[in-house]
Amino acid sequence: MTDISPIGASRAAYGRVSTPRNAEATSAQPTRVTNDRFEISSTAKLLGQIRDLPEVRTDLIDQAKANIESGYYDSDAVIDETLDKLAEDL
């Protein structure tokens, strides 16, 4: 087998290990940046609040609208029943 030197390297330089000029810089622990900050925009906060709202029951809303238009809630019986239920909750 022939001894072939790497391209561009002389025999004298081959196999030597060079040391860094500043040994402390390479052996020191990486510095930790502690001043990172982030801000949440008001829009993002609002979207988070909207996400947490309960699901809208459009079927119940449509039924209530139809009852209002038909005059269902204008009867004395419905008003009395509603007042009784409200009084129970208090």
Topology:
Layout: H1 23-27, H2 42-51, H3 58-70, H4 76-89
What is the number of helical segments per DSSP (H or I, 4+ residues)?
Answer: 4
From the spread of the alpha carbons, the general shape counts as rod-shaped
Helix-strand pattern:
HHHH
Radius of gyration: 39 Å
Proportion of strand residues: under 5%
What's the total number of strands? 0
Distance linking N and C termini: 100 Å
Mind describing the biggest β-sheet? none
Structural class: mainly alpha
Low-confidence stretches: none
Mean pLDDT score: 80
Please estimate the helix content: 40-55%
Describe the structure.
This protein has helices at residues 23-27, 42-51, 58-70, 76-89. The chain is rod-shaped and about 110 Å long. The chain starts with 22 loop residues before the first helix and ends with a helix. The model has no long low-confidence stretch (mean pLDDT 80). It is mostly helical. It has a domain at 56-90.
Short description:
The protein has 90 residues and is mainly α. It contains four helices and no strands. 0% of the residues are buried.
